[in-house]
Amino acid sequence: MKEFMLIFRHEDGARVASPEQIQVWMKQTMDWLGGIAAQNRLVSQGNGLSFGDSRVVRHGNIVTNGPFGEIKETIGGYVIVQAESVEEAVEFAKGSPVLQGEGNSVEVRPIAGH
Question: By the 8 A CB rule, do 25 and 17 touch?
Answer without folding.
Answer: yes
